[in-house]
Amino acid sequence: MASAFLCNTTSCFMLILLLPIFSNAQPYTNVSSGSSLIANDPTSSWLSPSGDFAFGFQQITPGGGYMLAIWFDKIPEKTIIWSANRDKPAAQGSKIQIFADGRFELDDPSGQPIWSAALASSNVAYGAMLDTGNFVLVGNASAVLWQSFDNPTDTILPAQILNQGSRLVSSFSETNYSSGRFNFWMQNDGNLVSYFRNFPMDDNMGPYWSSNTVGNDSGFQVIFNQSGYIFITAENGTILSFLSSNGASTTKYYQRAILDYDGVLRHYVYPKSDDPTVGRPMNWSVLHFLPDNICISIPTKSAWGACGFNGICSLGIDQRPNCFCPTGYSPMNPSDKMSGCKQDFIAQSCDQQSQDTSHFNFLDMHNTDFPGGDYISYQHVQEDWCRQDCLDDCLCVVVVSRDNSCWKMKYPLSNGRVDQSIGGKALIKVRINNLTLAPAGINLNKRNRSTLIITGISVLLGGSVFLNFAFLLFGFYLKRRKLNMLQPYTNTLAGVVDIRSFSFKELQEATNGFKEELGSGACSTVYKGTLNNENGRLIAVKKLNKVAKEVEQEFKAEVNSIGRTNHKNLVHLLGYCDESQNRLLVYEYMSNGSVASFLFNNSRPKWYQRVQIAFSTARGLCYLHEECNTQIIHCDIKPQNVLLDESLVAKISDFGLAKLLRPDQTRTTTGIRGTRGYVAPEWFRNLPITAKVDVYSFGMLLLELICCRRNVETNVTNENEVILADWVYDCYQEGRLRLLVADDEEALDDIKRLEKFVMVAIWCIQEDPSIRPNMKRVLHMLEGSVEVPLPPDPESFVN
């Protein structure tokens, strides 16, 4: 490999001229001993002489912790290129300081160290942020004692070198900067290797890319030079291999090479001006990347694949991996596309007494494989034989058929990938009765069809020809009806399954003529129903009384959008009816009703149950606001719209329906969405409506969960207790929180959590929406991962 990249004397000399200019030749903006920066001061940073780079604190997310970081300061994105404490975010008020005794240390607000630089000497004279993006600590003799370039995180810059033993570690995701799943390592043997980490441990599971610069062609350094080339050199300076051979001018472009969270090393450029000669848009664009296809590069025996267990990786048009789940599976964590997938149906039983092969079918995925995960393989067999063998094997969840051979896989699946080079197909075994719909164009396999025909013939031969022929026709009718009821949904690479379309007659039959009412509101009535063709599955059917005329044509599209949400704390939308004037929604049945009935009956629920309801509701809202492809604002969070399943797990209902309802469907003023007592003040003040209206409503719900009473209660002893929010704030101010949970020993024993929940609720119900935290911040405060600051006086409350 090295011979292809060996340079002659002249070319080597030219490249040597372009090697990095080391930090001791750069102009300094000195940061003297004793200088410090404090987290939460937006103007507090140390700039390089040109202002291109800044050293200081960046808040990871609004309301989250802080990273001590270096970033590009002149571009809007403020892209981070180095961090000291990526795995341990600093709290507000933390300080980085060059101490008089030579320490360079990041301390939390109490003075406890979070991170410190490993210095070669304690004689630090000053620090400096250089125009190369390198932060250095300089000694009394002008020697560099420490530099960020020697301690990279996931990025290298022009003028930076990776020596033997140095490595890059990817971030966990696009928004989570903590250490992730991949390493890029310049090993001591000179080989540059990309590894899949044994996350969350730090050891490696196996290489998926290598420069092969070992032995006589051993690599010595990775150099990113000022002309924008990235290459490996031998110890004598010979260039062995180019990692990015598409150079770019550092005078016209900002540049960085980063080991992205998906395991791909990408060389990015960003124009320094809108000069038309640059020819690139004013954003980061990819100049080069490796490996070429991460989906098929992950080793089959050493990792669970680029998209996690049961996930499938497909390379997108932009050469980035797309992760999706097979039909019948859903993401483990919707906010982390590489977390893998879980099975959404009951697995095939291995009990010989309850073999249920007739309940399973196969969905075909062409050019798909799960290499390395097979537990047995066969040669010289046809696809139909493979299907039947997998169907009869309770351990088999997928069989891959290719070139007259097949490979059987069991749960969980690993290394899932789609690529034209694979050929053949993967047959995904799914339970028919658990699927909302069957994929378009999918028929039952030949075995099931032939079994029905053979059964019919045997009946004809064994009795009355007329009656048996009638039974046979009836059998075909039932089979056809079952197939029709199972069609269609689209099996796309995005892994999205469209929800089922019901006829009005089907839902009329399922609800026994809409006989058993579960509840009603201003815009709908909910009925209990049973799907007899799905083993008596219970459902809740919501009849919408009025749907906005202007969105009738968008009803299906909007409902389909709601159906694509997938979170354990959202009530699952199973289907809909859009027939003539009838608009109905079909939901999973929640056996324990609403939080309102659970909370406000005669017996007070246990404290731990109320705490879990608060957590679950917050997680559901956080998903709607920040983790959906399109943000969904609920607009009517209240105890009646949070339902409980058989295990008392709370799930938000009626999310995403605001667009479907007419403007006059409201409990308060026309044009305002929501219910009196939970409506945010901005509804009344002609202010922009944002997700913060849900934060306000959640705050009111949280107060009700804490106190087990409604937000307005006239049947109280003292009139200052009528308005729950006012009373809670008074008790908080006066240190009398015990009054809120009188005689609730479980809550009183958990007084610290009680106080924290009260403080969070007060933050949520601030009149000014800009002061309220977002739901992610609320969730972090409830869970204790973020400190809850003292809340201000909400001043007044709208009820």
Describe the protein.
The protein is an alpha+beta fold. It has five domains: 21-150, Orthogonal Prism (Agglutinin, subunit A); 158-290, Agglutinin, subunit A (Orthogonal Prism), CATH 2.90.10; 312-443, no CATH class; 500-588, 2-Layer Sandwich (Phosphorylase Kinase, domain 1); 595-783, Transferase(Phosphotransferase), domain 1, CATH 1.10.510.10. The chain has 14 helices and 43 strands. The protein has a six-stranded mixed β-sheet with strand order 36-40-41-39-38-37, with helices on both faces. It has a five-stranded antiparallel β-sheet with strand order 29-35-32-33-31, covered by helices on one side. A hairpin with a 5-residue loop joins strand 7 and strand 8 (104-107). It is flat, with a radius of gyration of 31 Å.
Short recap of the structure:
Helix content is 19%, strand content 27%. The protein is α+β, with helices and mostly antiparallel strands and 799 residues long.
Question: Uncertain runs with pLDDT below 50, 5 residues or more?
Answer: 1-27, 435-497, 662-672
Number of DSSP helical runs: 14
- Largest sheet geometry: 6 strands, mixed
Q: Remind me, CATH topology of the largest domain? A: Transferase(Phosphotransferase), domain 1
Structural class per helix/strand content? alpha+beta
- How many structural domains are formed by the residues? 5
Radius of gyration: 31 Å
Relative strand content: 25-35%
> How would you describe the shape?
flat
Strand line-up across the major sheet: 36-40-41-39-38-37
Spell out the CATH superfamily of the largest domain. Answer: Transferase(Phosphotransferase) domain 1
N-to-C span: 74 Å
- Number of beta strands: 43
Overall CATH class of the largest domain: Mainly Alpha
On the 0-100 scale, what is the average pLDDT?
A: 80
> What percent of residues adopt helix (DSSP H or I)?
10-25%
Second rung of CATH, namely the architecture of the largest domain: Orthogonal Bundle
